[in-house]
Prior knowledge:
By secondary structure, this protein is an alpha+beta fold. It has two domains: 5-56, no CATH class; 58-171, Immunoglobulin-like, CATH 2.60.40.1080. Helix content is 22%, strand content 38%. The protein is built from two helices and ten strands, in the order ααββββββββββ. The chain has helices spanning 5-22, 33-56, and strands spanning 58-65, 69-70, 87-91, 94-104, 109-110, 114-118, 124-128, 134-139, 143-155, 158-171. Strands 1, 2, 4, 5, 7 and 8 form a six-stranded antiparallel sheet that branches. A four-stranded mixed sheet has the order 3-10-9-6. The model has no long low-confidence stretch (mean pLDDT 80).
Amino acid sequence: MSMSGRAFEARQTALLAAAALHGPLVLELGVDREVTERTAQERIRRLADGLAAYVLGTADFRLIPGPVVDEGEDVPSGTPHREGIDMTQMNTGHKFSLSIAAKDAAGFATTPNVQWTIDDPAVAELQVSEDEQTCVVVSGAPGSAVLTVTIEGENEEGTEPLSVTHAVDVVPAGTATIELVAGDVVSE
Length: 188
């Protein structure tokens, strides 16, 4: 994996800063030099990872969808995690929330500036929270739309927007919908 010029410079600066913060290597009598050096190098690397990640910003993010509820109900703030779901189907008169889970290159949580868009506003209205980290999707006319969430981030090629999509299907109220979930295979 090659680093962009900006990522390389940030990593180099972070390593120098981490080494300076760590200070010189001090050896005590009776302590193994190799173990002490390895321990110091690992501490410097961990500190440099944190510093570089802070400088570079968000490296990865995903959306966490909440439950579909009636428009008149409050969408719970503690939304249940549904791993791997990138589509929500709802009836007219319903809504659901999406939350951002973003992290930097070292795996620490970030709160990036987020842009929420939908390709067909007639299908769903977006109500973005003040901090931009959560969005409530309110049903509109029956149909399908693609919601796109974009943030500025760092990837292998450099600073480019990172984006993720979530499909939204709205069906008329009273229409039965089912979700098929594959179970374990069992012998007869």
